[in-house]
Amino acid sequence: MSIKTLNQYIDHTQLASNTKFSDIKRICNEAILYNFYAVCIPSYYINEAKKLLSHSHVKICTVIGFPLGNTPTAVKTFEAKQAIEDGADEIDMVLNIGLLKSGKLLEATQDIKSVKNAIGNHVLKVIIEISELTDTEIVQACNICLEANADFIKTSTGFSKGNATINAVKLIKKTVKNNAKIKASGGIRDYNTALDFIKAGANRIGTSSGVAIITNKENTTHNY
C-alpha cells in the first residue's frame, strides 16, 4: 500500500484532557498537509477545527459519552446532535459496556439507535472497548451495533487498560462481514502496524501518530 493511499485511512486524533487550542491547530494543519481522512477531537473544539479546515477535504470527527460510555442515552443524544450542529461530520460514541455485561442487550441497542437517529446520515462509529470484553461479548457488541445501524465498529478509546489487537479486528470482521466497517484505534504508532490492522480488516485507523505513520518515523510524543 502506498503512503498516498494509507493517509486516507487515518483519523488524526487529539483527545487528551489537556488538549489546547494550539493542539487543535497543529493536528488540523497536519491533517491538511498529509491529506488525512479526518481529525478526531473533543467536541468543544469543533468550531475551531471547522474554521481551520474550511478550505480542505478533511472531515471532523468527535467523541460522545467518552471515554466510559455510561452516561444516560439522553445525554449522549444531546451531545451528538450538538456536535453535528457545530459542524462535526462523524460521531464516535462509546458503547454502554455495563448494559452489555448486565445482559440488557435491548437497552444497549437502543442507546446506540437513539444516537444514530439523532445524527441521521452522518457516520456513527461505536467504540466497544475490546479490552473490557471477552470474545463472546465482542461478538454480542458487534451484533448490537449492527442491529442499531451503526456504520463502524471501533475497537478502543485508548483510555482503558488495552488497545486495538489484530485478533479482535479479525473477530469483528468475521462477525460483521461487510455489514459495518471497522476502526482500529489505540496503540497504532507506526507504518507496519497500521498496515497489519488494515490487512486484518480495518477500514480506518485512529491514532495520534498519524504523521509518524506516514513519514515512517518513530513517534516519541503521542501515545494514542
TrEMBL record:
Keywords recorded for this protein, A-Z: Cytoplasm, Lyase, Schiff base
MF term (GO), any: deoxyribose-phosphate aldolase activity
This enzyme's EC code(s): 4.1.2.4
Class of this enzyme: lyase
Any one of the GO CC terms: cytoplasm
CDD domains per record: DeoC
Functional pathway: Carbohydrate degradation; 2-deoxy-D-ribose 1-phosphate degradation; D-glyceraldehyde 3-phosphate and acetaldehyde from 2-deoxy-alpha-D-ribose 1-phosphate: step 2/2
Pfam family, one: DeoC
InterPro entries: Aldolase_TIM (IPR013785), DeoC (IPR011343), DeoC/FbaB/LacD_aldolase (IPR002915), DeoC_typeI (IPR028581)
Protein family per UniProt: Belongs to the DeoC/FbaB aldolase family. DeoC type 1 subfamily.
Matching PANTHER family: DEOXYRIBOSE-PHOSPHATE ALDOLASE
Function (record text): Catalyzes a reversible aldol reaction between acetaldehyde and D-glyceraldehyde 3-phosphate to generate 2-deoxy-D-ribose 5-phosphate.
Family annotation (NCBIfam families): deoC (TIGR00126)
Name of the protein described by the UniProt record: Deoxyribose-phosphate aldolase
